[in-house]
Design a protein that fits this description.
Length: 214
Amino acid sequence: MKECRIVLADDHSILREGLKSLLSKCPECRIAGEAVNGIELLTMLKSTKCDLAIVDISMPEMDGLTALKEIKRKFPTVKVLMLSMMNDFMHFERAKTLGASGYIAKEDAGDELVHAIEKIMSGKMYVSPSVMSLLAERQIHLMDGEKSPSIEILTKREKQVLGLIAKGITNKNIAAELKISIHTVENHRAHLSEKLGATNVTSLVKFAIEKGLI
């Protein structure tokens, strides 16, 4: 792989430092800049030569997916590797549709980051192992419409939210009980519907009962 100029975009300085440490193991990788949100990233790309942007999906002011859309419109030669804590089909599919060259779960970054960059810079699409596992689980579910999806595709927090939804608790009260924002609760509900193929609350309640969450 020839020299790869990389811009990191993540609002957490600790994570950026961790990424830089991982990239230090790759002689061809050079950090060309750092940004804390999508707006700062787009401004930086106007004056910074960049081959690859590693972009966190969840950022303030302008999130990673919105930034990805703008990058592909304004800087089409820049490849984008999406970095996410959200291992769900909805975000992956959106990133892929918007033109991401790769999608890596933060839990996989330690072992996979350099490999991901090498694969992307060779012109191939990269998807990290945990995300591939999720996609495989979803495909199995689609092939067997009568079989309920595995509860293992849900995160610990999603299970908590689902259990509370099944008890008839409102978004506001779920947010208060779990000490998270209502917006976060709404996101979890959307993820649950996507992962479980649920079209209404009744479907979510039925799954929760089947899996013993209530």
